[in-house]
Amino acid sequence: MVYIGISIKKKQAEIIYKNRNLAFFSVPLYHTAMTIHDPVTGFPLGDPAAPPLTPGNLPAHGDIQAALDRMILSASGWRAVFAASGSEADAAPAVGPAHLALAALMADSFADYLSALRPPPSALSVVLGIDARPTGTVLADVMLRVLAGRGIQAEYLFITAAPEIMAYTRKKDGFVYISASHNPVGHNGVKFGLNDGGVLSGGENAKVVAAFKEKCARPEAAQTALALVRACPEEDAAGIFAAMPQHKKDALDAYAAFTRLVAEDTPNGKNVTILCDMNGSARSLSIDRAYFESLGCAFHAINGKPRQIAHAIIPEPENLVYAAAGVERLRRAGGAGGVFLGYMPDCDGDRGNIVYFSEKTGRAEILKAQEVFALPVLAELSALAAKDPERGLAVAVNGPTSMRIDDIAARFGARVFRAEVGEANVVNLARLKREEGYAVRILGEGSNGGSIIHPSAVRDPLNTLTSLLKLLASRPGTTLGDVVDALPKYTTTGVTEERALLTVRSKDHGALKRNFQKEFEAWWAGRKAALAASWGIASCTAIATNGTAETVGITDYGVSGAGGLKIRFDGKDGAPLAFMWMRGSGTEPVFRVMCDVKGDNPAFEAALLEAETMLITQADRKTCILPEYTAYCAVIYE
User: Fold this and answer.
1) Is-contact 80 99, C-beta < 8 A?
2) From CA 419, how far away is CA 198, in angstroms rounded?
3) pLDDT tens digit string along 352-392?
4) 276 forms bridges with which residues in the sheet?
5) Using 50, 70 and 90 to split pLDDT, how confident is the model at 585?
6) What gap in Å lies between CA 173 and CA 177, rounded to an integer?
7) Does the residue 24 lie in any domain?
8) Distance (Å, rounded) from C-alpha 626 to C-alpha 638?
9) What is the DSSP letter of 439?
10) Is 103 left (phi over 0), alpha (psi -120 to 50) or beta?
11) Per-residue model confidence (pLDDT) at position 266
């Protein structure tokens, strides 16, 4: 037993926890100052008598507006640098007053949204959790008080993986998840969702955004935020913190059961060793070890303490080297034979790209994000085709997913449908296609390696690895390296490569793309013959992705707006050979570009990306010199 005794002047309270299964008992908490701690990590949850936002630290209205202006409010997540210092690399827990006020108004806006969906006398229940970022604690403190003050039953999970909170919320009304996903540690943000297992769609998120902005614009916004926080009685805040361990246990149980439901056929992992570089993420407090050991796998973790963020958060090749080194150590210690896999999640634990030990090369190989996604697509389509060969199969992906997925899908007679970048867009597209009668079990965003397996509506590395185990079990004697080698060959720009991230001055991306169209058409006219001679390109087609809609053959590139724009290049036979793609990020202040070309052809990919970058730069310059955009472009080009 673990006892946490809290000494208080004149009065005492004691919370008693059974550490292993998180069952807890508590006596009533008194109206007096005390900080309640999580019994597992020892991290503070909050002081019921000391709300973070007070009359003494109330921000000026101008500070609230300035903080709001720096926020990105997309369906994929509301994000900003929340660290009080303003540094994205700051791992300190402090959050400035303006961002505390914003957190209160965020919670109030979501409470309004839920109340409109389920008006009184309905009793609303909302689950709130955070990823492993230190700033999450105080933001959660503020938002929990606002929800409780609004009469909503708020259940707190503290540090929880995104798939975990979304699995648990399926029997509640909604969730608030405080996270900035793969962004640096000083960032934070919020994702809102209902009980369908995913985040709000773009359209529904826009409703909450509009309400939030309107609240922030009011001159009395700071006073409103303070009143919302103070509306929660101290004993209610104490009760929320005290109940956290039991809710966390319930969430872990729900997540474990749901993961087995998603798996359908549980693979045998007897000869498999799995290593996870937790990197201090929310997965360090989730079901990973228990789940894989239940399959018979040997499981190991490095950087396994929550908030032990040892290196950059995004799970791309430059950060997967630590998992690769760990897999090689395990392979040397374990000897030949068996399967050795590794993965690294991001801070909220919904992404997790893969490494594997290759007997062919004698080292751990890091899979590219597009390869990571291709493998579960192959696994799930082959399993579905074997069970029901007459059923209409489909895959839902985002615009920049490599065309290798089309080649894989064609093997099984499956259709590929594309949505704009953003998990919510892909999930909603898959739902629409299921309503049309398609079997869409596998979906996701190949550009970041995230796979979603129905009935889940969120990326989850546990599901990805389970698919890999099933794939290997269905092919006795075949190694993962053999399967990777057999994937259709494509050369694709990596999402985190420096050359994939542009800075553009144009704020109106529709106008930028119209100017890009002029530049591209002139370039195409002058180089069409050379492109045909060098790469076999015979024609091109412009494609827009906006939300769940893909429009092929657009004549006005500007209709893609803030969505994705793709130029697909086809050969003489009409078969696609390559594409260039672009879109402004919804969660980071960058303009993303990439190219995908058929075959192992880095020279083709590099030439195409160089041309795309040049044309966008020229279009950006011309967009900014137009009178209506000069206010956005007070930058001198060199």
Assistant:
1) yes
2) 16
3) 899 999 999 999 999 999 999 999 999 999 999 998 888 89
4) 301, 343
5) confident
6) 14
7) no
8) 18
9) B
10) alpha
11) 86
* Whether residues 329 and 368 fall in one domain: yes
Domain boundary residue, one of 437, 461, 488: 488
Q: Are residues 506 and 459 located together in one domain of the fold?
A: no
Describe the chain by its helix, strand, coil percentages, rounded to 5: 40, 25, 35
Residues 173 and 477: their CA atoms lie apart, in Å, by: 47
CATH number assigned to the domain comprising residue 368: 3.40.120.10
Per-residue pLDDT averaged across 20-46, rounded? 65
| Closest C-alpha among 449, 441, 464, 445 to residue 376 | 464
Cα–Cα distance for residue pair 480/492, rounded to 1 Å? 21
Does 529 map to a domain? yes
The last residue of one of the domains, among 182, 216, 244, is 244
Q: What is the 3-state secondary structure (H, E, C) of 230-296?
A: HCCCHHHHHHHHHHHHHHHHHHHHHHHHHHHHHHCCCCCCCCEEEEEECCCCHHHHCCHHHHHHHCC
Do 138 and 42 fall within a single domain?
A: yes
Count of residues making up the chain: 638
Tokens of 494: 């990596």
- pTM given for the model: 0.91
Q: Which long-range contacts (CB under 8 A, 24 or more apart) does 588-591 make?
A: 588/72, 588/79, 588/183, 589/72, 590/501, 590/502, 590/503, 591/501, 591/502, 591/503, 591/504, 591/509, 591/616
592 in a structural domain: yes
Q: Number of structural domains, the chain? A: 3
CB-based burial, 326-342: b 16+ in 10 Å, e otherwise: bbbebbeeeeeeebbbb
- Would you state the structure tokens that stand for residue 198, as one six-digit string? 């995913």
Q: Give pLDDT tens digits for 111-151.
A: 999 999 988 767 899 999 999 999 999 999 999 999 999 99
Same domain, 346 and 300: yes
* DSSP at 57: G
- Count CB neighbours of 606 within 10 A: 15
Q: Is residue 517 part of a domain?
A: yes
pLDDT on residue 23: 37
Asked if residue 480 and residue 515 are part of one domain, the reply reads no
Distance from C-alpha of 190 to C-alpha of 64, rounded to nearest angstrom: 17
As a whole-number percent, the residues of the chain with pLDDT over 70 amount to 92
Q: Which amino acid is at 387?
A: K
- 493 within 8 A of 605, measured Cβ to Cβ: yes
Nearest to 548 by CA among 401, 457, 420: 420
Distance CA 130, CA 137 (A): 7
